[in-house]
Amino acid sequence: MTEDSKFCTGCGRGLEPGMQFCPQCGRVVSGSETEEEYRQKAVEVEQFLAESRFNWVIFALAIYAIPTTIAGLLLLIDAGAMADTVWSNADFQNWVISHDYDITVDSVQNYITIVAGLCLASGLCALVSMACVIRRKMWKIAVVACAAAAVLCCWSLFGIFIGLLMAWFVYSLKEMFSS
Ligand SMILES: [Zn+2]
Fold it and tell me: What range defines the domain where residue 38 resides?
């Protein structure tokens, strides 16, 4: 026990050897076993929270990446049929006529193909980011891929916002990555 540990660091009261708490203000005596125990507990809680954050990020990336990739892929394969369905819809026809838009079935298909491609690219980027986070490797790629997934989600401002927020979360996990 050091010289200064004979006085409470909170109120300055003199302390007997072996005291764990200051009898005057209740502060844990510095250098005592209780303080060491508290420090250990704090470290455990910190680790638990970090693990939870990690799992949460993986979960959030998965619920975005998997359906987005599948939807993008299916839409890309089926863009022609999808365009025909949209095109033959009476409400769509009325909407085109009422606005006097110069839209053809091909332009509908092109539009669907572009959206599907963006969807697929965004989903794949999110998958790459997720794989890096799971393996706790290539932190930079995890951050960049997550940001790319957000930017590619350009049909939705909300999507971009959430995606960039996710990229920031991945960024904040740096010390938990091995590379
Ligand atoms: Zn005290």
Answer: 1-43
Mapping DSSP to helix (H, G, I), strand (E, B) and coil, where does residue 19 land? Answer: coil
Look at residues 62, 82, 85 and name the one whose alpha carbon lies nearest to residue 73: 82
Give per-residue pLDDT as tens, 110-156: 999 999 999 999 999 999 999 999 999 999 999 999 999 999 987 78
> Which residues touch 177 (CB under 8 Å, ≥6 apart)?
136, 137, 138, 139, 142
Q: How far is the CA of 2 from the centre of ligand 1 (A)?
A: 17
Find the 1 Cα to ligand 1 centroid distance in Å: 17
Q: How far is the CA of 28 from the centre of ligand 1 (A)?
A: 8
- Confidence class for position 22, pLDDT limits 50, 70, 90: very high
Asked whether residue 150 is domain-assigned, the answer is no
In a domain, 16, yes or no: yes
Instruction: Give the total number of structural domains in the chain.
Output: 1
Instruction: Measure 30 CA to ligand 1 centroid, in angstroms.
Output: 11
Q: Ligand 1 centroid to 45 CA: how many Å?
A: 26
Query: Would 9 be classed as within a structural domain?
Result: yes
Cα(116) to centroid of ligand 1, in Å?
66
Percent of the residues in the chain that have a pLDDT greater than 70, as a whole number: 97
